[in-house]
Design a protein that fits this description.
Layout lengths: L1 H19 L5 H14 L10 E3 L4 E8 L2 E8 L4 E4 L3 H12 L11 E6 L4 E6 L2 E6 L5 E6 L23 E2 L5 E6 L2 E6 L5 E3 L9 E2 L4 E2 L5 E8 L5 E6 L9 E6 L9 E8 L4 E4 L8 E9 L5 E8 L4 E8 L5 E8 L12 E4 L4 E6 L6 E6 L4 E4 L6 E9 L4 E7 L11 E6 L6 E2 L6 E6 L5 E8 L2 E9 L5 E7 L3 H5 L6 E6 L6 E7 L10 E6 L21 H5 L3 E6 L8 H5 L10 H14 L3 E11 L1 H12 L6 E5 L10 H8 L5 H5 L12 E7 L7 H13 L5 E5 L8 H16 L7 H5 L1 H6 L1
Parallel strand pairs: 38-39, 38-40, 40-41, 41-42, 42-43
Antiparallel strand pairs: 1-2, 2-3, 3-4, 5-6, 6-7, 7-8, 9-10, 10-11, 11-12, 13-15, 14-15, 15-18, 16-17, 18-19, 20-21, 21-22, 22-23, 24-25, 25-26, 26-27, 28-29, 29-30, 30-31, 32-33, 33-34, 34-35, 36-37, 37-39
InterPro entries: AB_hydrolase_fold, Peptidase_S9_cat, Peptidase_S9B_N, Serine_Prot_S9B/DPPIV
Pfam families: DPPIV_N, Peptidase_S9
Protein name: DPP IV N-terminal domain-containing protein
Length: about 750
């Protein structure tokens, strides 16, 4: 009897624990759906945009607890005040437009205040209005024509070199144009036509994008040898305007495809001389860009990006002789991050050149002489220049953002700085512990500095550029209402990477119902694209990819492993010709370190999800890293880099195509897959070829692997939309919690279920 009683007692205790600590139930699903709206509009005094209207005055809209508040700031008086009486303006707007306008939700744009007349001009819906702020008389100045939606150009469309209009000379005496694949000019007064080139053919023609020299005495025109015409095709199964499916097609260059070849040519107008430019210095082209004449017409320059991105040149062509000289020759044994880090600014018509480079292992600013010799490295140290934002030629200063300046701060935090042309007088404009966003006055004398962290809402300050002195605290973020809703700030967590020395940074997101006595499976949200870093640094109440999932009873994390950007060059180079790495060795160590500190993180139950490059990463987690990851949901992934867009993949995987592409392919290595995989695909995805996912699925089928394939009709490049989100949640609950998810009717359509 004692044994029976003991067994019953143990069973009751176990049952109670399961009930108290259940995860993935209907209650959690309902909370997961609700958190977005629950956390929305619960943080106040965090304005997002600031408009300088003069050198010392600005206005902005504050999200106060009472509603929208339009405020005017004067940097000289260090004061701010309402731009207008909100109730009075709402009343006159209501009367004038016959629409109810609430004083705490006025929506006006393009504010301009005339201090002499005290008239405020602004746009309200389709009206341009003027309000006298003494009398609140409101006058309609004009109606605003509705802007027609421009046809959004598809990112991959081939550039048509034949469609430019005729190009007039700067002195308007002649026009230049292309006829029969060759360059012609015509005298505007006499209508006399002159053929300048005779070597253009249909297979190697002159582009219509012609550039006259400023003195109208010379022309740069380039010949184009067309590249490969590569298209992708997909079926839109369920178009809205017809019953039958549609075949869609897109221009889409892939790694290894043949590219156009451009050869700039020089023409002297008076002598009608054609000077051919040798192509030896730019013979293996990915791109020729920024073809610009010097202001004094002495030369033109262009930039040459070598195929494979291991060389990048700035080339100068003498306008009298056609002699070519290389001003800058940037090289790398791995890759040059031209798409994210390259910056060039020519000072005084090319007497000096500001340039950025990672040649010393960190992204820094260099100053070149006009002849191409390096004058000086302006910034230096184990930190990175993120972006050059302004070159002040008059005061000989360079403004830029930087990361990694402070040992006691997150190395990804953006800070603002400036330095002289001689590399001296380095000055910090921001130093507070947070991620900064600055809006300068028109003359750069003042600036608005707003900074935040994932665990601290934004503080907004007005400062002077000279000395970075604080003049006024414009606003201080208030998250008290958010916290009342049960919101928990993400935790910033660091651990050592694979080398045992480098700090790897990420965040931990916990559910509002977090209980340290529970055991939580871990889900990583991943995007390891090498073109940037991705772990959030600013304050946000809600993370679409993490917050809702956490509410189901998971710990959700996001990590920037090696191979991503914005750290040292060595940190970044891990990705080169090795995208399958994905920073996974660092991610595993990071999660193990977090689980050691927080035993409630169950490192034996780990899921992962991502989209696009993150979809490739999520697939690679189970193909190459199933020793650690158990469940993955991969959306619209580029599962073989040979199937994806050329520019992104050749940037990091290199050219020519080699065995390393196959080694990194989820498709070619599908037989290695372990764990539970869901593939989500938009059938009309024109960012990543949908065939990439289908080829992965085909390889998995051939390898007798069990997986789920979710294809969403009519959907483009995405994580799967609402349908994909529901499938993703259920998949993780089922395979990480071993819990059968509630029915969708119960979760999403409870009222309809009750009526039935």
């Amino acid at each position: 009897m004692k044994k029976v009683t003991l067994k019953i007692s143990v069973f009751v205790t176990f049952f109670c624990c399961i009930s108290m600590h259940s995860q993935g139930t209907l209650k959690e699903y309902k909370k997961a759906i609700a958190v977005d709206s629950l956390f929305r509009d619960k943080v106040f005094n965090t304005p997002s945009t600031f408009y300088w209207v003069s050198t010392n005055e600005l206005w902005y809209v504050n999200n106060s607890k009472e509603g929208k508040e339009y405020l005017f700031v004067n940097a000289e008086t260090k004061q701010q005040k309402p731009v207008f009486n909100h109730k009075k303006l709402a009343d006159v707007l209501t009367k004038k437009t016959n629409e109810t306008v609430n004083y705490n939700n006025i929506n006006i744009k393009n504010l301009k205040l005339d201090s002499e007349s005290n008239n405020l001009n602004f746009n309200f819906k389709n009206l341009q209005l003027s309000c006298n702020l003494d009398t609140y008389d409101l006058t309609i100045l004009d109606t605003i024509k509705e802007k027609k939606d421009r046809d959004s150009r598809y990112w991959g469309d081939f550039f048509d070199e034949t469609k430019n209009k005729n190009v007039p000379s700067p002195d308007v005496s002649k026009i230049a144009y292309i006829k029969n694949s060759n360059l012609y000019i015509k005298d505007i007064k006499t209508n006399a036509e002159t053929q300048l080139s005779y070597d253009g053919t249909k297979g190697n023609y002159y582009s219509t994008y012609i550039k006259w020299s400023p003195d109208s005495k010379k022309i740069m025109a380039y010949k184009v040898k067309p590249g490969e015409d590569h298209k992708i095709y997909f079926i839109e199964s369920s178009p809205k305007d017809q019953l039958q499916p549609k075949l869609q097609t897109r221009d889409y260059l892939k790694p290894g495809d043949e590219l156009p070849f451009k050869s700039p040519q020089l023409f002297l107008i008076d002598s009608k001389e054609h000077i051919k430019i040798p192509t030896d210095e730019f013979s293996s082209q990915y791109a020729i860009s920024r073809i610009d004449w010097r202001a004094d017409s002495r030369a033109f320059t262009f930039e040459y990006n070598q195929r494979g991105h291991q060389a990048y040149k700035v080339i100068n062509v003498n306008a009298e002789t056609g002699k070519l000289s290389v001003l800058i020759n940037e090289t790398s044994k791995t890759f040059i991050d031209y798409s994210s880090k390259k910056f060039r600014y020519d000072i005084e018509d090319g007497k000096q050149i500001v340039w950025t480079s990672e040649r010393d292992g960190w992204n820094h600013v260099y100053l070149y002489n006009g002849d191409g010799t390096v004058k000086k490295q302006l910034t230096k140290g184990k930190w990175v220049v993120r972006k050059v934002i302004h070159v002040d030629e008059k005061n000989k200063e360079i403004y830029f953002t930087a990361s990694g300046l402070d040992r006691n701060q997150d190395p990804y935090f953006i800070h603002y700085c400036k330095i002289d042309f001689d590399g001296k007088n380095f000055k910090r404009l921001t130093s507070e512990n947070g991620n900064h966003k600055v809006t300068f006055s028109k003359d750069y004398k003042y600036f608005v500095d707003q900074y935040s962290r994932v665990d601290k809402p934004a503080t907004t300050l007005l400062k002077t550029t000279d000395g970075a002195n604080k003049l006024l605290e414009i606003q201080k973020g208030d998250d008290s209402e958010l916290i009342k809703q049960g919101w928990k700030a993400p935790e910033v967590f660091t651990a050592k990477g694979r080398d045992g020395e480098t700090d790897i940074w990420g965040i931990i997101v916990r559910p509002t119902t977090f209980d340290p006595n529970r055991s939580y499976p871990i889900i990583e949200y991943i995007y390891a694209g090498p073109h940037d870093s991705f772990v959030p640094k600013d304050f946000r109440p809600y993370y679409w990819s993490m917050t809702s999932l956490a509410e189901l009873g998971f710990i959700v994390v996001q990590i920037d492993g090696m191979g991503t950007s914005n750290r040292s060059k060595a940190f970044h180079d891990v990705c080169w010709q090795n995208l399958k790495d994905g920073g996974f060795p660092d991610r595993k160590l990071w999660m193990k370190a977090a689980a050691k500190k927080y035993p409630y993180m169950n490192v034996d139950k780990v899921g992962i999800h991502g989209t696009s490059a993150g979809g490739q990463n999520a697939g690679a987690a189970l193909v190459f890293n199933s020793d650690f990851y158990d469940v993955a949901v991969a959306s619209c992934g580029c599962h073989d880099n040979r199937m994806d867009k050329m520019w992104w993949n050749e940037q990091f995987m290199g050219y020519p195509i080699g065995p390393h592409y196959e080694a990194c392919s989820n498709v070619e290595n599908a037989a290695q897959l372990g764990g539970n995989l869901m593939l989500i695909l938009g059938e009309v995805d024109d960012n990543v070829d949908p065939a990439s996912t289908m080829q992965f699925a085909n390889a998995l089928i051939k390898a007798n692997k069990d997986f789920e394939l979710v294809t969403v009709p009519g959907m483009a490049h995405s994580a799967g939309g609402d349908y994909g989100e529901r499938k993703r949640k259920d998949f993780f609950v089922k395979h990480l919690m071993n819990v059968k998810p509630p029915s969708w009717e119960a979760i999403y359509n409870l009222e309809n279920l009750v009526k039935k």
